[in-house]
Amino acid sequence: MQILVIGAGVIGLAVARTAARAGHDVTVAEMTGGIANGVSSRNSEVVHAGLYYPTGSLRARHCVRGRRMLYEFCAGHGVGHRKCGKLVVATDAAELGKVEAIRKQGEANGVEDLEMIGGNAARALEPELSCIGALASPQSGIVDSHGFMRALWGELEDNGGMIAFETPVERISYRAPRWQVRFGGRDAGTLDFDAVVNSAGLGAQSLARRIDGYPADQVPRLVLAKGNYFSYAGRPVFSRLIYPTPVDGGLGVHVTLDLAGRMRFGPDVEWIKEESYGIDATRADGFYARIRSYWPRLPDGTLVPDYCGIRPKLTGPGEPAADFMIAGPPAHGLPRLVNLFGIESPGLTASLSIAEDVVHYLA
Ligand SMILES: Cc1cc2nc3c(=O)[nH]c(=O)nc-3n(C[C@H](O)[C@H](O)[C@H](O)COP(=O)(O)OP(=O)(O)OC[C@H]3O[C@@H](n4cnc5c(N)ncnc54)[C@H](O)[C@@H]3O)c2cc1C
Asked: What does the pLDDT look like over 146-186, one tens digit per residue?
């Protein structure tokens, strides 16, 4: 098949690479001038184990399977990664109950090697940490997400696929038996494809509304939840990922590490109406308070605004978190078309697994 994949973020690249390896003729249309210019370059680069998501949900299934696939891919392609492990910490008795519930959820999801440890055992691992207990998740880690995406792009090209940059998709119509797609940008025009995948991230809903005949009630709403990060201007004190108990809309302001060992904190949850990437430096006050609940010795004046990302959510404040929405032909009745909505965290971890299901849908 000739397949068009829209968007060169981690999901589009993973789908395109998987489809090309399966023998399809794949083109990726990306409206910007490079890969990973959207959500995929603005995240924590954490390889999630699969702890939090309801058993049987797409997030649980693709996170656990995708994590295993991602580590294997990174090992096989020389992509930087480190299975540094993670502690989900409880700072009082109420949080201990929540952390224990996360352990049970993780085990039900098939996450390996989980263990509850006491405060002293946690401090033996991370001496700066203050907590009364923690869930240790040795399978959690970090990845060089850009290295990963470059490797996906390389495999796509090795298998005959290509990316057309500065090529926004404007309109899609089904003209049996093929999809007619109108492009703008550098090489504006119309081309036909056998199959189309909409992995446009924050633009997925807007694009779905420009697919002629696509049922309007099958386009979910898009809710934007910005996550701000602050970097730490001092010597790193933790060697594992440290997470508090989750909050409404996110996993809580956590310690993330990059492969050079540098520490940063985030993301928080800021519900916004329109895309914007400025960071309000006064949000640091809230960060100090939250981080000091598990790292009381965080020195004053050490948090520096870093970057932010925007979660493409399907539900808003106070509402239950939505699952990934992978809308293939059974959902909308149109042939060889898949729309991906709400691919927020753990989308990076889950990407290779999501890609397998998407390609399966197109067959
Ligand atoms: C703050 C934050 C932290 C996160 N942390 C983690 C984490 O630690 N671990 C993890 O596993 N996941 C994490 N995630 C989730 C992960 O980053 C996303 O799930 C993933 O990057 C989504 O990738 P994508 O390809 O769907 O979207 P994107 O990367 O946004 O790619 C979509 C692409 O489509 C292009 N596009 C849009 N419209 C069009 C059009 N009409 N025509 C052509 N191109 C178009 C855009 O330019 C963009 O390049 C986090 C997300 C956020 C926001």
From this structure: 999 999 999 999 999 999 999 999 999 999 999 999 999 98
The dihedrals phi and psi of 16, each to the nearest 5 degrees, come to: -60, -45
Beta partners for 182? 171, 190
Beta carbon of 346 within 6 Å of any ligand 1 atom? yes
Which band of pLDDT confidence, cut at 50, 70 and 90, is reported for residue 226? very high
Q: Is 38 in the pocket of ligand 1 (CB under 6 A)?
A: yes
What is the average pLDDT score of the chain? Answer: 96
**pLDDT value at residue 149:** 98
Measured in Å, residue 343 CA sits from the centre of ligand 1 at: 7
Q: Which atom of ligand 1 is nearest to the CA of 10?
A: 25
Distances, alpha carbon 250 to alpha carbons 53, 102, 106, 244, 311, in Å: 12, 14, 17, 11, 9
Residue 97 is which amino acid? G
> Is the Cβ atom of 10 under 6 angstroms away from ligand 1?
yes
- Whole-number Å distance between alpha carbons of 150 and 158: 12
DSSP result, 244-273: ---BTTBS-SEEEE-TT--EEEE---EEES
Confidence category of residue 123, pLDDT binned at 50, 70, 90: very high
81's enclosing H/E stretch is strand 81-82
**% residues pLDDT > 70 (the chain):** 100
**111-117-123-124 Cα dihedral, nearest 10 degrees:** -90
* Pocket residue to mutate for ligand 1, from 348, 349, 352, 354, most atoms within 8 A of Cβ: 348
What does the pLDDT average to over 55-73?
A: 98
The preferred substitution site among 152, 211, 345, 352 for testing ligand 1, maximizing ligand atoms within 8 Å of CB, is 345
Q: Are 86 and 103 in contact (CB under 8 A)?
A: no
Distances (CA, A) of 58 to 10, 64, 66, 76, 354: 17, 10, 11, 26, 9
- From 40, 48, 65, 229, mutation site for ligand 1 pocket: most ligand atoms within 8 A of C-beta: 40
Residue 141 amino acid letter: G
Confirm or reject: Cβ of 256 under 6 Å from ligand 1.
Answer: no
